[in-house]
Amino acid sequence: MNQEQKKIDPTKLPDNETLSPEEETPVSQSEESSEEKTPEASSQSSAEEELNLLKDQLLRTLAESENIRKRAQREKEDASRFAIANFARDLLTVADNLTRALENIPSGTLEENDPLKAILEGIKITERELNNVLERHGVKKISPLGEQFDHNYHQAMFEEEHTEYQPGQVTQVLQTGYILNDRLLRPALVGVAKAKSAG
Q: DSSP string spanning 149-166?
């Protein structure tokens, strides 16, 4: 018999023969270790999956909290920028009345009347100061005479054929508009030029 141990297939032995302990096929150590590591590997993979899931949840929570913080900051800034909107809108009536008063005074009647000249000058100063105060707080006039009609800032009251303006341009401003920090406070009421009819 050779010194090397022969591997014997137990299925090919006669019924009355059995393998001796030395003849049995040895199980390799690698197979034993792989069988032993299987539960550990599965537990390790499940732990990694759980860790990845927790990381994902943490990242999502951080992103959501950052979005909430930015939204709150934006709302706070908007509130401070547009807090005076209602108050400014009410003041526009005063500005309109001062403008109408100046527009409706006949120029010829003031040449020889010094008291009326003083009153007119006072109204002009008051209107100018009111406009300066409004501008300091972000309220600006929209007076778009000759500009292209913009439905975001203008409200068309009528259309008319016009020789001086192209179709779509503002031909007349009936009421001045105002914006507050680039947000519309009141649209300008305007007349708009239209294309000439074929007739």
A: P-TTTEEEEEEEE-SSS-
Rounded to a whole number of angstroms, the CA Rg of the chain reads 45
DSSP letter, residue 44: H
- Exposure letters 160-171 (e unless 16+ CB within 10 A, then b): eebeebeeebbb
Alpha helices in 21-178 (DSSP H): 29-81, 85-103, 114-136
- Show the DSSP H helices in 82-168 as ranges: 85-103, 114-136
Q: Which amino acid belongs to residue 135?
A: E
CA-nearest of 157, 187, 186 to 171 is 157
What phi, psi does 135 have (nearest 5°)? -65, -35
pLDDT for 150-182, tens place per residue?
A: 999 999 999 999 888 999 999 999 999 999 988
